[in-house]
Amino acid sequence: MRYILFLFLSLNLFSSTLHLATSANPSRLNPVLATDSSSSEITGFLFNGLVKYDKDLSTIIGDLAQEFYFEDEKTLIFKLHKNVKWHDGESFSAKDVVFTYGVLVSSKISSPYSANFRFVKSVEAVDEFTLKVIYKEPYFKALETWMMGILPEHILKNEQNLMNSSFNTNPIGTGAYKLHQLEHSKNIILSAFDDYFEGRAKIDTISFHVIADPMTRFMMLKSGALDVGSIEPMQYERQLKSDFFEKFNIYENISQSYTYLGFNLRLEKFKNPKIREALSLAIEREELVKILFFDHAKVCTGPFLPGTKAFNESVKAPSQNLKRAKELLAEAGYDAKNPFTFEIATSNSSEIRPYAAQILQHQLKKAGVIVTLRVMEWQAFLNMVVFPHKFDTVLLGWGLSPTPDPYMFWHSDNDKQGGFNLVGYHNPEINRMIEESQSMIDSEKLSDIWREMFKIITDENPYLFLYIPNSIATVGKNIKNIEPAPIGIWHNYILWEK
Known about the structure:
Elements: H1 2-11, E1 17-22, H2 37-46, E2 51-53, E3 60-62, E4 65-72, E5 75-80, H3 94-104, E6 120-127, E7 130-135, H4 153-156, E8 177-183, E9 187-192, E10 205-210, H5 214-223, E11 228-230, H6 233-239, H7 242-247, E12 248-254, E13 257-263, H8 273-282, H9 285-293, E14 297-299, H10 322-331, E15 341-347, H11 352-365, E16 370-376, H12 378-386, E17 393-399, H13 406-410, H14 428-438, H15 443-460, E18 463-476
Parallel strand pairs: 1-10, 15-16, 15-17
Antiparallel strand pairs: 2-3, 4-5, 5-7, 6-7, 8-9, 9-10, 11-18, 12-18, 13-17, 13-18, 14-18
Helix pairs in contact: 8-10, 14-15
């Protein structure tokens, strides 16, 4: 605590500092390689894409691009802002976008985001501030693809190994903040970029305290050592007193994410669909939501989120049926003398998920299933369990775009190193439907095929879809100009004042 207090006092030597916490060290502060939540969160302050969603999540608007339009169904034109600078003072131009595209389609990197560019035929710099992107065929996410952060060509053009480059810990972006200090397991400090093209951020410094333990993060928030933080429903309902609400404003809305238990379908024990169905019927999702979240979450029924055009309202979460679960297990050769056994692996970066794993363990025991638990530090969990596919099951979550891309998570192509098809799901019919849907520009037809995919995937139980949590953000009342919106509170952070 002395170290934390020292940091807190020393950082306040800056004229204004926004104190945040992150649960783990960022693995790579590089937008094309940032796959963990800490890296993604921090790179969002350091880099810009060509476009972004508006605050209502309803329209795509310009970011580095001042203007954009389709010449035809396969040709996309971007007109770039002319006053954008990199953090080292060099000017941003169309050649940086061409370079970033080349990196993403290169065999030299392993990035799940490369899949988004598979329909791009060419990216051409027409002039210094104009880009022409030609697609092989119409693509429903053509615009959203370019929300990817853009890399500096002048710094990385001679880089031989971007995966292990020093750039990943010394990034140069175009964002409103630039990296000031990176101390792993201690503190990551960002400072406002004076020449940011939309105007200098009003808060001078953002300090991310790397705090793995959720309870320590909570205690720091309560003490006022953090200005912004997220809280769990249990904390909100039972562990906060009136003095906290006198100091903090609360902003709550449904998150754009869900949590699931994913089966490693490469293992023989999970290839039998009766086993997966039995495990699904053995759990009580409503109980999980009630115990963990009170009324601050809802049961997840499938792979696409409510409120999107891909959501299938006709698919309901299965009710717990222990009798049928035991029958299915018996048909697969398991009973009290020979119980089905597996391990749930998860991370301690979230206070909720280890408890969720314990509840699942208890529920499954009622069906005669023996579950062991493994709870790990986030980076170790990713590097030793998730990405090498060395697990029985993983308790994880996905944050999703308002326009879902089933290809990244459900197509067989992405059952590979660095891909997001972590569980090894293979269904030729789903592959065909995904491939067919990619070039659909008729929104009604696209919605229909998404909803059909929703039902097929859910029926096959590659995941047990569990819950969609609410996001409960707390912001100190001394932070001004917060404007809550469907996209969250961060959309106008350069206007915040402290």
